[in-house]
Amino acid sequence: MIYARIAGTGSFLPEKVVTNKDLEKLIDTTDEWIQERTGIKRRHIVADDETTSSIGLEAAKRAMSDAGVGPKDIDLIVVGTATPDKIFPSTACIIQRQLGVKNSPAFDVHAACSGFVYGLDLANRYIQTGGAKTVLVIGAETLSRITNWDDRSTAVLFGDGAGCVVLQSSDEPGILATHIHADGQYEELLHVPNGISVGFDQTRAGRSYIEMNGNAVFRRAVAAFDNIARETIADLDGDLGDIDWFVPHQANMRIIKAAAKKLGMPMERVIATVDEHANTSGASIPLALDLAVRDGRIKRGDTLMFAAFGAGFTWGSAMVKY
Ligand SMILES: CC(C)(COP(=O)(O)OP(=O)(O)OC[C@H]1O[C@@H](n2cnc3c(N)ncnc32)[C@H](O)[C@@H]1OP(=O)(O)O)[C@@H](O)C(=O)NCCC(=O)NCCS
Known about the structure:
Bound molecules: coenzyme A
Strand content: 15-25%
Structural class: alpha/beta
Radius of gyration: 18 Å
Mean pLDDT: 95
């Protein structure tokens, strides 16, 4: 049996930090309101010359160094992103060139905040079926470019960042289980209304930003985490004690707490880094994972549970022996 194992992790946060206090000067909000409703304290924002590919590249380099692999070893690059550099080529192709990787397939997966878990599911299947041996699964986002900084209901929630795991084939497990889902019927609860085939503005006069019905999204997110909890409990034959660390999508502290409660996970075993970087969509799980690996909480041999939720709606989970 071939397994896919996480051989290394890496992440990158842009240098520029915008605190809640900074936002108080731009919009009608307060640090207290933001912290109480979301748990967020600050977010990192890309500089004008930084892009989704440039921050994804940094995360990838760090993960490759952690795994001890070089460009010649990489035989697939998957980038989970909702904020690609360009319409085409894919951000994965741009990163491939900058890494000096030759001939590997490289493509983006667009599943909004679930992009990393979707990418992990896919990469796991490639490795298990012998289609690849060493895969970069990257989550990278520049949400600041589609955030309306005048809209207090969304501006406080999002940030930029990137995370990456190197997945390698192994005789030892690895990725133990993955589940991914989508339900397209709630498109307008969380979306960017203009894209390419809809509302594309060749004059560049019109901008398009994230639009969200916060209350309804909150309810759908909690329902999705309920679904994830049921699948996980079934996978584990009811023994949640096997999970050392729950690493959820870092959208909002209240959603993280609700998700942990559904799973029966005490908060001491939940990795929550959303206070430091806000919601970085597809980047948030590999970012939280890497931060917790670096600070020594997550150790080799630990069993991890990733759980994601995002626009689409999409959701999914992965259980991993780290
Ligand atoms: C967005 C969210 C934090 C709002 O919290 P909430 O408790 O639902 O707040 P409401 O939207 O009901 O708004 C309550 C009040 O705060 C106000 N408010 C909204 N944003 C505010 C802000 N940034 N600062 C201060 N007040 C704000 C509202 O205008 C409203 O005022 P009113 O009562 O006078 O009408 C919450 O709905 C949420 O977390 N949703 C999920 C968002 C998410 O994670 N999306 C990504 C999923 S991947």
